[in-house]
Structures are given as C-alpha cells and as structure tokens.
Write a structure and sequence with these properties.
Number of helices: 4
Helix content: 55-70%
Strand order of the largest sheet: 1-2-3
Largest sheet: 3 strands, antiparallel
Strand content: 5-15%
Distance between the termini: 49 Å
Length: 167
C-alpha cells in the first residue's frame, strides 16, 4: 500500500475514532447528568436536555428505526471497505465524520433495544430544530462537506476543460 492510501485511510479512521469517542462520552454524560436536570447553556438558544428517539438524525422518521439501523450498517461497511483508497485529506475527514457518527448511533440502537430497534440518546437542543447529538451533527457536517467538495471539484473540472466554440 502506498503512502497516499495509508495517509488517507489513517486520517479517515482517526477522524471516525475521535467522533465515536466524543459521541459515546457526551451521550454517557447526558444519560447521567441531564435526565431530570436540563441545563440552559445560552438562555433560549441552547439547552442540554436528555431525550431519546427511535428515528434518524434530528428525530426524523421515528417509526422506522430498522431502516436507519440498516442504512447505518450499509454506510459504515461501504466506508470501511473503501477506507484505504487514495483520496484528498478533506474527503477522508468528511467520510470519517460520517463513519464515526453512523457508528455512534448504531451502537445506541444495538445497546438500547432488541435487535437494531433501540433508541438513540439526544441532548443538544437549539430550540428551533429537533434535539440531536454529536453523531447526528457529525453525519450532517460530513455529508455537507462531501457535497461542497463535489461541487468544488465539478466547478474546477468545468473551468479546466477547453471551451467549446460553435463554428
């Protein structure tokens, strides 16, 4: 394996590991600290409030927990299988964010219910959006970063291609 593949894979797995550890630690803290004592961090804007949900990111689709669990397994497997492909660092970080977040929520589903139907711990309440967790935020940031990178690469490819002329 060449250095670029090792570097990309290592970046991806370290990012995923950091997200997974942060997610597990913050969920554990929320479980032990917040159930009966929500904390206003910024009055009316940010509250740490313990809740759980069976849906996907930001409590969406709470009637289909198995769908989200299977999607998380597929996403984790696809990223893991391709983790040591040569890729730019930003792509590795984005994929690591998605992998770490998907794994964090998948662990909740396995540990907090029968089969893959367990509930996910959420605790970050911005008052204008459903309550979420570090894993949810990582998945969304990673996905948005992937979209941004794809759009930027598309624009760069268009700029680099010779202009077509009529005539």
């Amino acid at each position: 394996m060449d250095a670029a593949r090792r570097r990309g894979g290592l970046t991806l797995w370290v990012t995923a590991g950091v997200v997974l550890v942060a997610d597990r630690l913050t969920k554990r803290w929320a479980e032990h600290t917040l159930p009966h004592h929500p904390r206003d961090v910024i009055d009316g804007i940010l509250t740490f409030r313990y809740t759980t949900n069976s849906g996907g990111a930001f409590s969406l689709g709470d009637r289909a927990p198995l769908v989200f669990a299977i999607a998380a397994i597929v996403v984790c497997a696809a990223i893991a299988v391709t983790s040591f492909r040569a890729r730019p660092t930003a792509h590795a970080i984005a994929l690591g964010l998605v992998l770490g977040g998907a794994a964090g929520n998948l662990i909740d589903r396995i540990a907090r219910g029968s089969g893959l139907s367990g509930r996910v711990v959420d605790f970050i309440d911005l008052h204008v959006w459903p309550v979420f967790n570090v894993a949810d935020a990582s998945i969304v940031v990673g996905a948005l970063l992937l979209v941004f990178l794809a759009l930027r690469e598309g624009a760069a490819a268009r700029d680099a291609s010779p202009a077509e002329h009529d005539g």
